[in-house]
Amino acid sequence: MNPAAVDDGRVVVHVCDRVNPTLAGHDGREYTSPPHAPADALALVGLLLGRPTPPDHHHDTVWRCPVAGGQRTITLSPINPDGERSL
User: Fold this and answer.
1) Is 83 inside any structural domain?
2) Does this model's pTM top 0.85?
């Protein structure tokens, strides 16, 4: 993925919680947001991380943090002009 592409248009936020089912009581969760402007997407990332994203890291596209029983991975993916998510 080209991180610079995040500045060119809308992005989606994808969240994946990988957890130990015995500890967490579930098999994990995944969510993909509707398209957002990059600044709004970074605000959502900050909420999901439980801390603001550092202002000097605006080209980051992947974050990880611990969650109860596992790990959360958050990624930003640019949206193609036709509205499809880029991989």
Assistant:
1) no
2) no
